[in-house]
Automatic annotation (TrEMBL):
Gene3D superfamilies: P-loop containing nucleotide triphosphate hydrolases (3.40.50.300), Peptide chain release factor 3, domain III (3.30.70.3280). This is Peptide chain release factor 3. It comes from Ectothiorhodosinus mongolicus. It is found in: Cytoplasm. The lineage of its organism: Bacteria, Pseudomonadati, Pseudomonadota, Gammaproteobacteria, Chromatiales. Its main location: cytoplasm. PANTHER family: PEPTIDE CHAIN RELEASE FACTOR RF3. GO terms for biological process: regulation of translational termination. Keywords: Cytoplasm, GTP-binding, Nucleotide-binding, Protein biosynthesis.
Length: 528
């Protein structure tokens, strides 16, 4: 008989949703929770978002960030599985957190608006998933509205995102003529009947494409469907679980999240095909989830709004072993053993204290300033997980102090905020600027706010002539030294002590790359 550890691990499904704002991520999340039995939650995800739109007040920001500690991870049971859904901040608070959350999942769900197709944010998030060949399922949403031809959409996904598409369900009409979906593998038509809110879809299911009942309900659309499907099946890939797991093919589902339609079909296949926790690379060896000895890494640190705990929460993804309440764990980077008495788990809406947690689960650790992004916890082995990178920022600002005597506090504050992953810091070799980098504009506001409140430093951020950054390295030390001298005006040291090329324009970067072919310019940097 398999051990409890093996059984519990095998039934974990840990994933995140990637999408462009407004495609329907919040609605899909809510409906997944609805089907996961956390019905009382329907509406709360929305409420959080409404609050975000309604105000830009910083206290509100804090509050929202606090609330989202609990909704950053949502765990719910479905069939025999335990699903962990990791929220990726969308909208204006898009940040490095979003990217790093994707390093803690085993698969992703891509939500696409049927009318809009592949959008810019989706492309970026997909690039991040590519770094680890994360398996991706696709949900094409809003079929109750007029949109683009499904065939064209699949074509666009294949072309723009470079991943093969395998339709698992196929829509019957759209907009006013939307009648439901046909499930290719099950040879069954699921009929659509619009429902809103907290009720699950109870539409009729008709078995078999040739079933005369189909002509009865669909009229002329039945013949259209058969014809279209013949074409689709001839022209598209059929679902191949192996290609999906390798990140080469995405199974595609159609539906309408707001009407609870298509979500159950998606979830049913998700728990069957989405991967259980996968092995993880460390600097020394591969860690298998089946290993008895505990290991995990921190991928996110967030302010905790519980007034009882004015500390921060470090989110740790468990990679192997079983976590038990009160366990003593080695905090590898600082080589210290700590007893974890009050870790948080994230069961549906309630934040609960963890008794036990397994590979694939996320637990929250209270962080009093010692935990950094990328930190590893084990039962003693000196492991360091890899693949939790910093991403090259796309936005840059120069920190400007109102009171020059506060330089020390500013530097200390920035260093700590960098370790938490709130921002990145670059110090040019040839001047005393402090240049901050981010991938989302809100990161600067958060940093300014936290500097003021936590470090008592009033800083402003002004534009600076930097457009992009690359970490540089070279096997040939003499060449690197030469580069360091000749390109000094464009070089800086980041908060981890690594050398970074900061370019005023993309053209400048391109020219530097052409001029220095021996130098590696990298868009990501590992924590460490
Ligand atoms: P997010 O920004 O990706 O989280 O998207 P939301 O879930 O907030 O959805 C954006 C908008 O699309 C909201 O007004 C939703 O009510 C609407 N929406 C979501 N799903 C559907 C759907 O299936 N059909 C229609 N017509 N609208 C939808």
């Amino acid at each position: 008989m398999p051990s409890k550890h093996a059984t519990e691990t095998a039934r974990r499904r840990t994933f995140a949703i990637i999408s462009h704002p407004d495609a329907g991520k919040t609605t899909v999340t809510e409906k997944l929770l609805l089907y996961g039995g956390a019905i009382q939650l329907a509406g709360t995800v929305k409420g959080r978002k409404a609050a975000r739109h309604a105000t830009s007040d910083w206290m509100e920001l804090e509050k929202e960030r606090g609330i989202s500690v609990t909704s950053s991870v949502m765990q719910f049971p479905y069939k025999d599985c335990i699903v962990n859904l990791l929220d990726t901040p969308g909208h204006q608070d898009f940040s490095e957190d979003t990217y790093r959350t994707l390093t803690a999942v085993d698969s992703a769900l891509m939500v696409i608006d049927v009318a809009k197709g592949v959008e810019e944010r989706t492309i970026k998030l997909m690039e991040v998933c590519r770094l680890r060949d994360t398996p991706i399922m696709t949900f094409i949403n809003k079929l109750d509205r007029e949109g683009r031809e499904p065939i064209d959409l699949l074509d666009e996904v294949e072309r723009v995102l470079g991943i093969a598409c395998a339709p698992v369900t196929w829509p019957i009409g759209m907009g006013k003529r939307f009648k439901g979906v046909y499930h290719l593998a099950r040879d069954a038509v699921h009929l659509f009947s619009p429902t809103h809110g907290g009720k699950v879809q109870q539409g009729e299911i008709i078995q078999g494409l040739d079933n005369p009942r189909l002509d009865e309900v669909l009229g002329t659309q039945a013949a259209e469907l058969r014809e279209e499907l013949e074409l689709v099946m001839g022209a598209s890939h059929s679902f191949d679980a192996e290609a999906y797991l390798a990140g080469q093919q995405t199974p595609v589902f159609f539906g309408s999240a707001i009407n609870n339609f298509g979500i159950q079909e998606l979830l049913d296949d998700f728990v069957v095909y989405a991967p259980a926790p996968r092995s993880r690379a460390t600097q020394s060896r591969e860690i298998l989830p089946a290993e008895e000895s505990f290991s995990g890494f921190v991928f996110k640190i967030q302010a905790n709004m519980d007034p009882q705990h004015r500390d921060r929460i470090a989110f740790m993804r468990i990679c192997s072993g079983t976590f038990r309440k009160g366990a003593k764990l080695r905090h590898v980077r600082i080589a210290r053993d700590v007893r974890i008495a009050d870790a948080l788990t994230f069961m549906a809406s309630e934040r609960e204290h963890a008794e036990e947690a397994y590979p694939g689960d996320i637990i929250g650790l209270h962080n009093h300033g010692t935990i950094r992004i990328g930190d590893t916890f084990t039962e003693g082995e000196a492991l360091a997980f890899t693949g939790i990178p910093n991403f090259a920022p796309e936005l840059f600002r120069r920190a400007q102090l109102r009171d020059p005597l506060k330089m020390k506090q500013l530097q200390k504050g920035l260093q700590q905020l960098c370790e938490e992953g709130a921002t990145q810091l670059f110090k040019p070799l040839t001047n005393n600027d402090l240049i901050l980098g981010a991938v989302g504009i809100l990161q600067f506001d958060v940093v300014a706010h936290r500097l003021r409140h936590e470090y008592n430093v009033d800083a402003s951020f002004e534009t600076v002539n930097v457009q992009t950054a690359r970490w540089v390295s070279c096997a040939d030390e003499r060449k690197l030294e030469e580069f360091r001298e000749k390109a000094a005006a464009n070089l800086s040291i980041d908060h981890g002590g690594d050398l970074v090329y900061i370019a005023p324009t993309r053209v400048n970067l391109q020219m530097a790359q052409e001029r220095w072919p021996e130098i590696t310019f990298s868009a990501t940097r590992e924590h460490g």
